Amino acid sequence: MSADKTAKNRTQQVKGKAKEVTGQATGNKKLEYSGKKDMAAGEVKQRSGK
Known about the structure:
Helix content is 88%, strand content 0%. The chain has two helices and no strands. The protein is elongated, with a radius of gyration of 12 Å. The termini are close together.
């Protein structure tokens, strides 16, 4: 996997974590779950090499 793809996938994971934490802090469940989904998607892409 290229360094560019790795960076993009890691960025998606970090953005997802930020959304999750913001959702938890504000009590916004929709934002929290969206963040968890983004984190999971980034992890899957990272592991599959996409």
